[in-house]
Specification:
about 10% strand; Rossmann fold; 14 strands; 6-stranded mixed sheet; 5-stranded mixed sheet; 4 domains; about 625 residues; Signal recognition particle alu RNA binding heterodimer, srp9/1; Helicase, Ruva Protein, domain 3; about 50% helix; alpha/beta; elongated
Length: about 625
């Protein structure tokens, strides 16, 4: 919102005074003629001076009229050189007088202006201090107020969240036509809580509601309420709701509500601290205002499990709207919005890019397109193409490509066989994601190579066979090292970590162990969007814990044996492809399938089927 300057009569008076002062100074300077001191002595001796006034530094006087009319002559001024000129003046009959010189301008410059400058700086610093620290502004909220014309975001700017958008369109309808709901006795929810992982567009949706409704929008963070002064947060809550009622209908949006609404009683010191007092005041305000006034409170959080239960009860935050990660269709819609904002060339396969970015949210996709644009500029191109977008996906997923990192030939050979081990096992086993690219160019901090698999569709359920095959694919790199070099390296530490976590989840959470049966052993807790895999200690005996460890070990061993057997069967393909990978450093998925067909013809044109053995056959 633009800052409004108020008109003051003091500005006009000060301007008039300055104009008059400058006018007098200029006029007086133009009317008085300056002459040299020698000319002044000559005029005195010639009787041309009628009267003078002598001051400490200069002499001012008037000449005798030359026309003899008796009128006053011309004014003059000269610098006083001789300190004692009274005798000369008396001898020539010149009337003279003394004058104490008063330097008004000098006095003004030396006293008034410094004082005024000091007070101006003091007022400026106090205002800045008040804005930054809140001192002397107790009870004033820090909300950024966007008026109707300031919010230019609409629902069309928020793609990939169709379900959440439908929930919020009802709020927009109420703010536009409240009589439709009040006529039948309906009430809009007092509070709407947007819940979802970071970057999914919760704040964007809140602004879109304000933009579609055409009402003022109060935006602030939960951490802005609480500061070091006791009672300041509660006072700001009161002022916020009071100001919102004056501008109703309007929307109050509190981002990161968990900073303010954390469950009470969790403080280490106990008692009612400043944050709890602020939360209490927020609860009171939610109970106190009339929902038909048109003030709607919206909040966003990615940690709903730690919010105070009193906030989530009906009558406060009545409705919780999940803003989840977009699916493939949603990612395509988001990519289209961001691609329309940049210059592109050629045909951009949005569906393919959406398939390459599973799990990414709106913020990730915006960063992806921005990285692609930067790559295009780095390559001195005016427009970005599909190549830049694919490179940006690899950069976001795997890290920055480091071609200058020197790797000795032996390590490079190990990395090549390791990555091909992943790829060949993934191609051989059923129900695995297709391999799109294999690279032995170092990326990121510690990745010496990577194998990119792109899912053909979004998956929400995984069968036990698919999980086993994924574990086997992760262990394929270690199996290839053992098969070719009869030795293993440290390059599989991340693969082992992911495979072990997946096997432990199969045993403890999914009930995929015959010895333990259909029992859930993981510590149950509410979902945390920041760490969905977080879990605490299980409530089971030491004997059960030992069985869990044995089952996890069994799954890992069986899938490692399956990966090793698959690579032994396809060793010719492994060694032949490794030669080409060491030469080219990058192999695309299509080229890898061509190599596989050259070794063994595939019965199906859709996927190359290699020779493999299941874990059950190996166990038998």
């Amino acid at each position: 919102m633009k800052k409004q300057h108020r008109f003051s009569i003091w500005y006009v008076l000060m301007g008039v005074w300055l104009v008059l002062l400058l006018h007098n100074m200029i006029a007086s300077a133009l009317m008085v003629k300056s002459i040299p001191y020698s000319e002044f002595i000559k005029l005195v001796k010639e009787g041309q001076v009628s009267e003078i006034t002598v001051s400490e530094n200069d002499i001012q006087g008037r000449l005798v009229a030359t026309d003899g009319s008796g009128d006053k002559g011309e004014l003059f001024r000269t610098v006083r050189v001789d300190p004692d000129i009274s005798q000369l003046l008396e001898e020539n009959g010149v009337n003279y007088s003394g004058m104490v010189q008063s330097n008004f301008i000098g006095t003004l410059m030396s006293w008034v202006i410094p004082i005024a400058l000091f007070f101006g700086i003091w007022i400026f610093m106090m205002r800045r201090f008040q804005q930054q620290s809140g001192f002397m502004t107790v009870g004033k909220n820090k909300a950024k107020i966007y008026m109707e014309d300031d919010v230019d975001i609409r629902f069309t700017d928020a793609a990939g969240v169709d379900e959440a958008r439908q929930e919020l369109e009802e709020v927009t309808s109420f703010l536009r036509e409240p009589e439709r709901y009040t006529r039948v006795g309906g009430q809009i929810p007092r509070g709407i809580l947007l819940v979802g992982p970071p970057g999914t567009g919760k704040t964007l949706l809140a602004k879109a509601v304000a933009g579609e409704s055409g009402v003022p929008f109060f935006s602030l963070s939960g951490s802005e309420f609480v500061e070091m002064f006791v009672g300041l947060g509660a006072a700001r809550v009161r002022d916020l709701f009071q100001q919102a009622k004056q501008k109703a209908p309007c929307i109050i949006f509190i981002d990161e509500l968990d900073a303010l609404g954390k469950a009470r009683g969790m403080a280490m010191a106990g008692g009612h601290d400043e944050r709890e007092q602020t939360l209490n005041q927020l609860l009171v305000e939610l109970d106190g205002f009339d929902p038909n006034v048109g003030v709607i409170l919206m909040a966003a959080t990615n940690r709903p499990e730690i919010l105070d239960p009193a906030l989530l009860r009906p009558g406060r935050f009545d409705r919780q709207v999940l803003v989840d990660r977009p699916d493939k269709v949603g990612r395509s819609a988001i990519l289209k919005i961001y691609l329309d904002k940049v210059e592109t060339e050629g045909d951009i396969d949005i569906e393919k890019v959406a398939g390459m970015t599973p799990g990414m949210v709106g913020a990730d996709l915006a960063n992806l397109i921005n990285e692609a644009a930067l790559l295009a500029v780095r390559r001195s191109k005016e427009r970005l193409g599909m190549g830049e977008i694919e490179e940006a996906v690899e950069r976001v997923v795997a890290g920055l490509e480091k071609k200058n990192r020197l790797i000795n030939p032996e390590e490079k050979k190990i990395v090549a066989y390791h990555e091909l081990g992943h790829a060949i096992v993934a191609m051989a086993l059923p129900a695995t994601d297709p391999v799109q690219k294999i690279s032995i160019i170092p990326r990121g901090i510690a990745a010496l190579g990577y194998t990119m698999q792109v899912p053909t569709e979004d998956r929400f359920l995984m069968r036990q066979t698919e999980l086993n095959n994924r574990i086997a694919t992760l262990l394929g790199g270690r199996a290839a090292e053992e098969l070719i070099f009869n030795d293993i390296s440290t390059g599989a530490h991340n693969d082992l970590s992911r495979a072990t976590d997946m096997a432990r989840s199969m045993v403890k959470e999914y009930g995929m162990s015959k010895r333990l049966g259909q029992v859930y052993f993981a510590h149950k807790q509410q979902m945390s969007f920041l760490n969905p895999m977080a879990e605490g200690g299980g409530e089971y005996s030491e004997e059960t814990a030992q069985i869990i460890d044995e089952e996890v070990r069994r799954i890992i061993d069986e899938q490692y044996a399956a990966a090793l057997a698959t690579l032994k069967t396809n060793r010719d393909l492994l060694e032949r492809t490794a030669v080409q990978l060491l030469e080219d450093e990058v192999i695309e998925g299509a080229a890898l399938e061509d190599l596989a067909r050259a070794v063994k013809t595939s019965p199906s044109p859709g996927k190359v089927v290699l020779s493999t053995q299941s874990s059950e056959e190996i166990a038998a």
